[in-house]
Amino acid sequence: MMNAVQLGAHNQQLAEMQQLIFTEPVLARQKCGQLLAHARHAFDAPTFISAALSLSLIEDQLGDLQQAISVLSEALVFAEEFKQKQRIPQLLEQIGRCHYSQANYPQALDYWHQCALQCGQQNDLLETRALALIGLGQICDACGENAQAIHLHQLAHDLLLSINNYFLLTMAKINWAVNLQKTGQSEAARTILQESLQLSLAHELPHHAAESQFRLAEIAISLDELILAEQYIEEGLMTVALTPYHWCEINLLALWAQLSYRAGRLAQALDIVKRGLHIAEEDGLRHLVFRLSQQAVLYARAGGLNAIADEYQRKIDFLQVHLHTEIAQPNALNLQMLRDLIA
């Protein structure tokens, strides 16, 4: 059994580690691993569950998502065995997030749907329900169901307005804006992203600031505001240089390569996209490997580098064979199950 001294030490270690998640994630990962080991040994279920949830936030930036899923699954067992069932929806939500980041969309859909159903309308699970709705909106987005995605993200946003959780509020704003942009509502999307950027900077959320900058750059490119786009990309890359956020860094590099290609700087475009591909492959972000490989083929062919283009095309062909469910056929997902959630 744990004594009060051990419990107090675990709580202090948890608080110290959580302060580092978004500013020094590598150090946070190290401290989190130590805390998980101590909590496992002491059968301290509440600390183990909290540390597992923190690890998933860390790995969402650093990329070892399989390790996060493994630890979250272990935490689910702790929650069942040690009467921590109120934590189960949080764990389901984060497992869904890890699967989504790896383009495992059917698994993500299943975990997020389970989470939203378990949360119901309970006030103490309002934040977790909002996160699940955001995730389900992202699944709708991946399937091209942008109107349904907007509805889910707006529902999540409205739930979060009564809570002082700027991490979640900015997440909802970013995702809502993405789907507004995809339905041609660029100015509404830009306004929401500028709000998100200001809130993220004011509340020291650099990863959401970087993602806001990335999305603002996308809008600027779509409106042919190329100087503004380059400015947002530059600011975003400066932000991720200070706090690692690999998914966002890859996407910023992909946009920068796109701008370089449009300006006729073919060699630079290919070099930039190679940088992004290296990070995506290291982290196992297969849907990003797929998309950046398509860019690499385009830039290599335009520069007359056909052997290099063929090499990237082989990578694309391999991914299409092995990831057809996630990448080529996301519309095969059953979204009918979401009707009860958004009624």
UniProtKB/TrEMBL annotation:
SMART domains: TPR. It comes from the Bacteria. InterPro entries: TPR-like_helical_dom_sf (IPR011990), TPR_rpt (IPR019734). Gene3D superfamilies: Tetratricopeptide repeat domain. PANTHER family: RAPSYN-RELATED. This is Tetratricopeptide repeat protein.
